[in-house]
Write a structure and sequence with these properties.
InterPro entries: DinB/YfiT-like, MDMPI_metal-binding
Distance between the termini: 22 Å
Helix content: 40-55%
Shape: globular
Number of strands: 0
Number of helices: 3
Protein name: Mycothiol-dependent maleylpyruvate isomerase metal-binding domain-containing protein
Strand content: under 5%
Structural class: mainly alpha
Organism: Spinactinospora alkalitolerans
GO molecular function, one term: metal ion binding
Mean pLDDT: 85
Low-confidence stretches: none
Amino acid sequence: MNEQLDLEPAANRMRALTAEITDDDLTAPTPCAGCSAGDLFDHVSGLALAFRLAAEKASSPSDGPPPQPSAANLPADWRERLARRSMTS
């Protein structure tokens, strides 16, 4: 199975969302029970990093399980970090 997925549309949409969302929006509910928008952005940011490290065959900064997704985990520059992590080329 050599088919590659085109992640460019999803990456473009994620970059657009990070540019549009305000800090007040981070507490908004989502369809995922118990997860705020900020929690999901933290989750996606962690996954983007994990996927990139796996593609580069690099080791993870942590050997343990990831922390529970939480808006509280988002650093001040989370928008820029997530935009960089969602680059596909």
